[in-house]
Amino acid sequence: MTQIQACYNFAMKVSELGEFGLIDLLAKMANVPRDNRIASWRQLRLGIGDDAAAWQGDDSIQLATVDSFIQDVHFPSGLASWDELGWKAMAVNLSDIAAMGGVPRYALVSLALPENTEVDDVTALYTGMIDLAKQFGVAIIGGNISRAPLVAITIAILCTSTNRDRHILTRSTAEPGELVAVTGELGAAAAGLEMLTKRLQFDPQATVFLRNAFFHPYPRIAEGQLLVDHGVKTAIDISDGLISDLNQVCKASGVSARVEIDRVPVEPTVKAQFSGKSLELALSGGEDYELLFTARAEVVDRVKRAATCLITVIGEIVAGKGVTLVDRQGNPISLGKAGWEHFITR
Amino acid sequence: MTQIQACYNFAMKVSELGEFGLIDLLAKMANVPRDNRIASWRQLRLGIGDDAAAWQGDDSIQLATVDSFIQDVHFPSGLASWDELGWKAMAVNLSDIAAMGGVPRYALVSLALPENTEVDDVTALYTGMIDLAKQFGVAIIGGNISRAPLVAITIAILCTSTNRDRHILTRSTAEPGELVAVTGELGAAAAGLEMLTKRLQFDPQATVFLRNAFFHPYPRIAEGQLLVDHGVKTAIDISDGLISDLNQVCKASGVSARVEIDRVPVEPTVKAQFSGKSLELALSGGEDYELLFTARAEVVDRVKRAATCLITVIGEIVAGKGVTLVDRQGNPISLGKAGWEHFITR
């Protein structure tokens, strides 16, 4: 316990330690009983700290992830329809599997609901979850329901590695000399949330697009598997924000990243409607659920040729620590906000 | 959707439909995308409706379960220490695996916490979870943390079937002519909760015992595996209450059960301290996390000889529906309360 206790001060609140500090602390504790005479520890490939956990199954690698989706924390109360909530809760979890290059197989759903919730709303919630799950052949096979003062949806996803290749994508394998690339375009989800919470008025097409960007993200399952197929080793999904998530990769890999901000693919509607703020939304807004990966230039080229979505190189991995943003001339610039972390009040 | 919608009235609240009604409804929805051309559906052995879900892995059967443990719903606020909460949240989930005769391997923990929670309390919570998990070689390998207005602990457990025998225990295989039996003694957990919430005063030994019965249940993992080894097919863990859980077995198996109330092993401290109410606590109090199983007399005898805990035959499976309680002379008797079901207000 000494090492663990040394990490924080006496009577510290979780809001002072922050989400990532707390995860580090609990990961250390969870690893204390590690004993390779026991099968579960011996077969463990990846514990706390990545998008999903992984262990050696009988024949393939097994993966599992769990995430909660809580009213007024992960989604604004009253703004989403129930089927949007269901879709997004499922999408957030499937995205963690996309980030590992896994094949999602089964989902378990733990629902907490106020007792005056209408049954029609719960079936709409399930409809949203099932609509997305079935697109990836994922079966919802269990879970539980309990009453609670607020809505909380916790989903666990069970997966396997792809048949063709048994390796999985992790956060900890980035190396200097690799390029940093992202799938798709960024900023629309955060722009959608801002539009909804600040009741901003746009034309109907932009309104629908931005709303869907926030509530209907489409997890990059196929792209994650494609990255594995083409030899990429390192990936993460952009949930907390590009900089924050890239920083997680740097931390886990013991490297630094340089991002050329002019190369970041800011989504065009966001650029048009949030001109001054669009870069910040793309860099630190989060919830786009695109994939960020690192690989050597020739691997990125192979991925670009094979992918059906946009793949953009935004920077490179170098020796050092943390994420540096640079302008076209290579001069470092700074941004106030670095992404979304639970508990830390900025 | 027609069949699903026919199950409930327009604008019904979940409190009117009840937990079990809602589970039935959502299970029907979740089964709609069933398609045996897809691997996940083809390999599924057991979906929504049992203590855990099960599917055919590469070599062994894989099992998974998820359960939430929510402040003021599953545990009274302020009465438990944080390590007791951690232990119990883990125990509740492991008990579902015990009820399947599975070998628990990995746990994922989703924690929701108010931001002013003290870090020491979170590490105490984890200590409780780890203390129990390591007794069964279970590794905590992932999860997530988020802020929330209340404490909610959701744990997913991943398991395999035992090496020796690939069958698992289910709720749906009880047959007329089998005996109904339980492990251990019943009523102490519910008595402990009553003592805590009503601030009842007992001698120190009884106080500690009853508190532990509620907060420190020991999941019957070894006994579940022993049941599989000796040919038992049907089991459930007593979480909602003996009658309620036995009723689930009857419903899933399409049979009826007769329970001779004088044979129910009421825990002695409960009998001594809650004389008039002790039988009700044992029959419908719940949270004892003992195993209830059905099997032919010779199988029960084999289990009795092999088990290190008390095994008591309390009745038999007959043709029909529901659970009947009978006295020593075989006359039916009735009890007001049938167990714990979420949402239904009695």
Summarize, please.
2 copies of one chain form a homodimer. By secondary structure, chain A is an alpha+beta fold.
Tell me about this structure.
The structure is a homodimer of 346-residue chains. With 346 residues, the first copy, chain A, is an alpha+beta fold. Chain A folds into two domains: 52-160, PurM-like, N-terminal domain (60s Ribosomal Protein L30, Chain: A, 2-Layer Sandwich); 179-333, Phosphoribosyl-aminoimidazole Synthetase, Chain A, domain 2 (Alpha-Beta Complex). Helices cover 36% and strands 23% of the residues of chain A. Chain A has twelve helices and 13 strands. In chain A, a hairpin with a 6-residue loop joins strand 1 and strand 2. In chain A, helix 4 (82-98) runs parallel beside helix 5, helix 4 packs parallel to helix 8 and helix 6 crosses helix 7 (204-215). Residues 1-7 and 337-346 of chain A have low confidence and may be disordered.
